[in-house]
Amino acid sequence: MHRPSPRRPSPRLLTPKSLLTLLTFLCLSLSLYTFLTLHASPPSTLTAAEITSKNLRIYDKSKHTFSLQPYSKTTCIAALVSNEDEDIDDLRIALKSLNNLNLDSKTKIIIFYESDLTMSHTNKITKSLPSHHIDFEYINFQTFPELFNPSVEESNWHKRSKWGYHQMIRFWITRVWDFESVRENCDSLMRVDSDSCFLPSTKEGMRLEEGIVYR
């Protein structure tokens, strides 16, 4: 007697809801694995002081441990100044006002200059912030991008020189990062203009009646 072969159940297709549930489960599993991997306990040889000091904690996945490497970069403050006496005097005020920010002693100060500074200029600048060493870097504003002809192109802004303002913008956007003193020493860079001035923590009620408070 011939017996009919049992019918195989037809494969069930995943519904959109089931597929979404599966994807959610996979994502959560991956996130949990990543969290546990990245938050593995550091080796017992590292003290709490070492872990919280300014070092890079490098994770070795094969050993599931952290190792410390010295982190030498620091916060940098940079300014660009000409050799005009007025600009030098303004910069001195800006540097003196940095004392109101409670700067870390390791903060690096870099002064970029695009015209020759005299010894008198540099002495005045360094005496403005005696608590910090100040480095000076020369920037050549007579160089231009390749294929740009400054004698043919027209400038849309004239102040002290034909291309001075444009070169200043170019410097802060791109050229400042070409300097080794910035690349090798700075993990962050704050620009200070010669006419900047920093005040201590203050609260002014200039428009308090309008609900606006200046801090």
TrEMBL record:
Organism (species): Triparma laevis f. inornata
User: From which domain of life does this come?
Assistant: Eukaryota
Identification of the protein by name: Uncharacterized protein
Q: Tell me which InterPro entries the record gives.
A: Nucleotide-diphossugar_trans
